[in-house]
Amino acid sequence: MKFMNEKNRIIVAAAANMFARYGYSKTTMGDIAAEAGVARQTVYNAFQGKEEILRAVVRQAGEDTFVAVMEVWSKAGSIEEKLTAFHDLGPIKWFEAIRAAPDWAELLDGLHKAASEEMADQDIKWRDALAEVLQAGASSGGTHALSHHDMVDFFYSTSMNAKHGAADIAQLRSRLATIRAATLALIGP
Hints:
The protein is mostly helical. It has helices at residues 6-22, 29-36, 40-46, 50-75, 79-100, 104-114, 116-138, 148-161, 169-187.
């Protein structure tokens, strides 16, 4: 993808709106151009196709989420507050946004196919950030059988997969609360 200049940011924001409103498969490059207030050729000059735009949407949304969580973490007083912020601004926010889309099941499938590389890059970034948070908690005296890497993997993987099979937001929140409690118990007092 080309550099994210202001025009590209506008196109990406327009695409995110259109994907949420009409679904990925029903949104055309022309729809994105109209929403962005630019010519269709401008969209094609910036992005090779809809999949590239979807990758850019995922990248931008991931960056926005990371910045929002880091802002909350900079003010949070406890590890529990940080883990809750990660859940609220990550899995819960994404669950609500995806479920609001008209073709949410297809969108999830499309995300995994078209944006798997973007999501893998974000996974690394999140695991590194969570490693710092959990290391701070573990260094306060917790004794546990799991390695630090295993604790990060447990928290992150279960948090990101908690949405699978969740009937609604209440069930997802309950699952995430259990994951937080288990993680806090693992890192100790």
